[in-house]
UniProtKB/TrEMBL annotation:
<dbReference type="GO" id="GO:0005737">
    <property type="term" value="C:cytoplasm"/>
</dbReference>
<comment type="subunit">
    <text>Homodimer.</text>
</comment>
<feature type="domain" description="PhoU">
    <location>
        <begin position="25"/>
        <end position="112"/>
    </location>
</feature>
<protein>
    <recommendedName>
        <fullName>Phosphate-specific transport system accessory protein PhoU</fullName>
    </recommendedName>
</protein>
<dbReference type="InterPro" id="IPR038078">
    <property type="entry name" value="PhoU-like_sf"/>
</dbReference>
<keyword id="KW-0813">Transport</keyword>
<dbReference type="GO" id="GO:0045936">
    <property type="term" value="P:negative regulation of phosphate metabolic process"/>
</dbReference>
<dbReference type="GO" id="GO:0030643">
    <property type="term" value="P:intracellular phosphate ion homeostasis"/>
</dbReference>
<dbReference type="InterPro" id="IPR028366">
    <property type="entry name" value="PhoU"/>
</dbReference>
<keyword id="KW-0592">Phosphate transport</keyword>
<comment type="function">
    <text>Plays a role in the regulation of phosphate uptake.</text>
</comment>
<dbReference type="Pfam" id="PF01895">
    <property type="entry name" value="PhoU"/>
</dbReference>
<keyword id="KW-0963">Cytoplasm</keyword>
<comment type="similarity">
    <text>Belongs to the PhoU family.</text>
</comment>
<dbReference type="InterPro" id="IPR026022">
    <property type="entry name" value="PhoU_dom"/>
</dbReference>
<feature type="domain" description="PhoU">
    <location>
        <begin position="135"/>
        <end position="218"/>
    </location>
</feature>
<dbReference type="GO" id="GO:0006817">
    <property type="term" value="P:phosphate ion transport"/>
</dbReference>
Length: 245
């Protein structure tokens, strides 16, 4: 499937609406990218001002999701799309929801940075799990960029890579949680701070889950196959097969 298939209809209005959907998703994805990159800068430097920027930006992300929802409803009501056009609309709705939830997760990271600054005498980087937190956030940001590029190109070539990356993050996340949990007993005076780190780790891991969901929506758009209910072995085999095509 190529993107040009979505702007070759007799109806110019439908062509414009479908092009708008592509552009709105890419713009919204760009906003979440900025949100995540700003959170990474805030994490690296313990920068509260940057963390507050992340929270402000989330309102713009939420508005973008509402606008995409409105546009999808208008196309469905007025132009009754079928086949690949309908898949585009459904995929767009799913991707917009995942992007909006990504933004919510990034806000949790920003709130942790602010809380450490305002309520605790130490920085979050002084605790177990912080290195993994930065690692997972950086990897998740890369996954988001790859997924958005795949949507722009209407391509599933990197779908298998995204799933593999998400599974690698699951391992890093589990090891980080084990380290932090061990510190609960060894450093009982730090439990509140360690719980904040656990929450931020969970938020960054969820960002990678949403990036994977976006790629699965792209697979649905391009291949017409809903892979969400596939077990892991069958999914891997399917993604390997479509990468070779």
């Amino acid at each position: 499937m190529e993107k040009k298939e979505f702007n070759s209809h007799i109806s110019n209005q439908l062509n414009r609406n479908l092009e708008d959907l592509f552009n709105h998703i890419l713009e919204m994805g760009g906003l979440v990218e900025v949100q995540l990159e700003t959170a990474l800068q805030a994490l690296g430097a313990g920068d509260v001002a940057k963390a507050k920027e992340v929270i402000v930006l989330d309102k713009v992300v939420n508005q973008a999701e509402m606008e995409i929802d409105r546009l999808c409803a208008r196309v469905l009501a007025r132009q009754q799309p079928t086949a690949s056009d309908l898949r585009l609309i459904l995929a767009t709705i799913r991707i917009a929801i995942d992007l909006e939830r990504m933004g919510d997760e990034v806000v949790k990271i920003a709130k942790m940075i602010i809380k450490f600054n305002e309520e605790y005498a130490t920085a979050c980087r002084d605790y177990s799990g912080y290195a993994e937190l930065l690692d997972i956030a950086t990897r998740s940001n890369s996954m988001l960029k790859t997924s958005l590029n795949a949507f722009a190109r209407v391509s599933t070539a990197e779908a298998l890579d995204i799933v593999n990356q998400e599974e690698e993050i699951d391992v890093i996340y589990k090891n980080a949680c084990d380290k932090v949990t061990n510190d609960f007993k060894a450093k009982p005076d730090q439990v509140e701070c360690l719980l904040e780190v656990i929450g931020a780790l969970r938020a960054t891991e969820r960002v990678s889950d949403h990036a994977r969901n976006i790629m699965e929506s792209i697979v649905y758009l391009v291949q017409g196959q809903d892979v969400r209910s596939m077990d892991e072995e069958r999914l891997m085999a399917f993604l390997a097969e479509i990468r070779e095509d």
